[in-house]
Structure to design on (206 residues):
């Protein structure tokens, strides 16, 4: 079953284009503002809104309309190869999902509708490593990324995907913008950030 990782890759490019001062208000980073375009993009894919892409394709995204996202695919549980769960500006947990490049795009015609069981399994699979995550200081995220830089950049020209989730919609300070700048300067251009899903909220982080 392909879960349209190519769509998430497309969202990464949208994120990279809009990492600017609009996302920082009074020295804080707001995830919902940062992901505003992403949300509209995903909604258009879920609803198979061809008019949205006809209007925006050449102006913003520079891509044709991809395959639709299955409505059963819960993107709140999407994770990258390395996933960081940010509690606040001091505490973060992370785990390595995989240092192998397993994410591929299915071409047109490879679409297969997800079943309810597929949807549940997707959530279970992308939540199972949360209890085994390691605690670090939030300002050490760049150190972890630098440690695995060789694996992230790799030799096939497609960087591994890095994901972030946050307990809160607003993250104080400039740690996230600085982190994204660090990543882009070091060729780590595939990343996304979202709020905690239910599994992360219910985890007993200490």
């Amino acid at each position: 079953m392909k879960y349209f990782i190519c769509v998430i890759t497309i969202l990464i490019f949208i994120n990279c284009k809009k990492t600017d001062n609009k996302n920082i208000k009074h020295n804080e980073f707001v995830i919902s503002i940062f992901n505003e375009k992403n949300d509209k993009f995903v909604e258009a894919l879920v609803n198979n809104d061809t008019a949205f892409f006809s209007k925006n394709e050449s102006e913003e995204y520079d891509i044709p309309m991809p395959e639709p996202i299955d409505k059963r695919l819960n993107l709140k549980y999407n994770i990258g190869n390395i996933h960081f769960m940010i509690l606040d500006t001091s505490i973060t947990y992370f785990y390595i999902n995989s240092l192998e490049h397993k994410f591929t795009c299915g071409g047109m015609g490879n679409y297969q509708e997800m079943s309810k069981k597929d949807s549940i399994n997707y959530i279970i699979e992308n939540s199972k490593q949360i209890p085994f995550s390691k605690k670090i200081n939030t300002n050490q995220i760049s150190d972890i990324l630098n440690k695995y830089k060789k694996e992230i950049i790799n030799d096939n020209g497609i960087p591994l995907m890095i994901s972030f989730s946050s307990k809160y919609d607003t993250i104080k300070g400039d740690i996230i913008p600085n982190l994204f700048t660090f990543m882009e300067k070091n060729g780590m251009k595939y990343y996304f950030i979202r709020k905690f899903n239910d599994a992360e909220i219910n985890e007993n982080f200490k």
